[in-house]
Amino acid sequence: MIPVDILLENGAKKRLFEKNEYIFREGKKAHFYYQIFSGEVKMNNFLENGKEFIQSFFSAPRSFGEPPLFANIRYPANAIATMDSEIFLLEKKAFLQLLTSHPLIHLKITEALATRLHYKAIMAPEISSQEPEHRILRVLDYLKKEIYKLEKPFSFKVDLTRQQIADLTGLRVETVIRATKALEKKKELKIKNRKVYR
Predict the structure, then answer these.
(1) Which domains does the chain have, with CATH numbers?
(2) Given a cut of 80, is residue 176 above it in pLDDT?
(3) What global pTM score does this model have?
């Protein structure tokens, strides 16, 4: 995303967030641009029944939480560190000035946002109507091809727990376990040492 030297030149500060620490909460105003230096962040919502719904995972050097900065709206989800994570924080005003003075960086941010919108547009009907096996493959293929840029069969080692896959697809853990076993039988997935490969 934004080169570290440019972030620092514009006043960004690097902060450590411990595992399970909130970076921001749903409903709060946006004051910073966030970019991961190390670690991982998940964006989620908690439903009325207490069940977690995971919007997405982000790892270095990706950014997250930008739409409310541009639209001047409140965060629609929480951002939580899934492990100890170092994250650059850049104040909103400085971030917008940086984009004005660096049009190529502005374009990269726009491309990243467009990719995320595309993912949400694809996944919304998938989660609401498709069979469990199909939902799981859609999420894994998006991560494999769009995030990690992998193409070869079974080159993508899925570093998600069964619970995380369930939270990403709106399924129950038991359903994910059954579906992944069925997909292995169909040679759509490989399972080695309890790890899933796509």
Answers:
(1) 4-102 (2.60.120.10), 130-197 (1.10.10.10)
(2) yes
(3) 0.73
